[in-house]
Amino acid sequence: MDALFYLTSLAIIMVIGILCTLFSEKIKISNVLLLVIAGIIIGHIDYYGKPLINFSPLFLTCVGILALVMIVFDASSRLKLREFDTFSMRALNLTGIFLLLNLIFLTTSVYFIFNINNVFLAMMFAALMSGTAPDVILTMLKNTKNRVVELLKIESIINTPLIVLIPFIILDLFRDYSKELFFSKFMETMGPFLQQFVTGIGAGILVGIVVFKIMRTKYSENLSPLALITAALITYILAENLKGNGVLAVTTLGLFFGNVYVREKEALHEFSYLFANSLEIIVFILVGIIIKFPLNILFFAKSMLLFMIYLVIRYISVQLCFSKLNYSVKEKIFMTLNVSKGIAVAVVVFILATYEIPGMEPLLNLILAFIIYSIILSTVVVKVSRKFLEAETT
Q1: Which residue of 103, 174, 199, 222 has the lowest C-beta tally within 10 Å?
Q2: pLDDT-derived band of residue 394, with 50, 70 and 90 as boundaries?
Q3: Is 359 helix (H, G, I), strand (E, B) or coil?
Q4: Region for 341 from its dihedrals, namely left if φ exceeds 0, alpha if ψ lies in -120 to 50, beta otherwise
């Protein structure tokens, strides 16, 4: 009976997700906003006194990890180290400065505005909000050639592995140091913490050498894409079993794949991208279902205030990066306001929602609110993009 219930729930989610995606294409907006809203609506519907859709924590964790592995691998595999030019370095600088300022100022703001008693949780939120996704821009400006649009796209590719990895590193620190923040405790746990990095990188390199050595000479239209998914999963599992960081291991594997010769790499890239995006419908709807933020004026007032502070931090980051370069004020404002959150942020918050972490619930509510605010803002800004950008359309 449970299996039938799960399959029925999954079918409902997929049907709703497909309808939302088709409708979003018709009105030319990103489907992310509609998927999250659909999830929120479903989450508030009861059937005979029980939630209409309800999955076990184990199922949710498995789906979340699978999505996490594929998103991290796909994003990191698109980082071509040999192709890093001045344009890519600007995006990298923006990513680093925005992350640093968020860890300082957004952490402080959320700590006091929402009375978060644990600085580690506040830092995890700040790191996660440093992630951007060009979904809204690419959906509505896919035929537009502009340096700002390209820059935002590169920034999202660069920051995706970071904003997925850093929150879990902070979570590990929280678990180890939350009770004792003494120097002796720090030194005692520093060894195992560094071991996570070494083991994670080692696992990614090991699996990469074995798998991609074979894939350099052999390609199967049916088996090679499956081998790619299997390699990513094995890398994560191997690293975690060896007490390493699975996300870092998959990131290493993705970088390995993106920078070595593999037969029919473009076809494999396309497959990993499609597979990762096929999980998008499930993840975004489930995020809306399992996170039920309070529908009251105080929460919205506080969250909007924090979001305004967040935009100020973003503008300062853009200004610091491009003050000496030939970017207009309108272009800087466009970069500031386009901070939409994508599948990477949704996957991380989805996994965090399955953990039992004291004090996490207010931050999950806040993350969901930020996802909605950022997507709505980006959609509006892109609709009037002609006022910000001088674009050459083809």
Answers
A1: 222
A2: very low
A3: coil
A4: beta
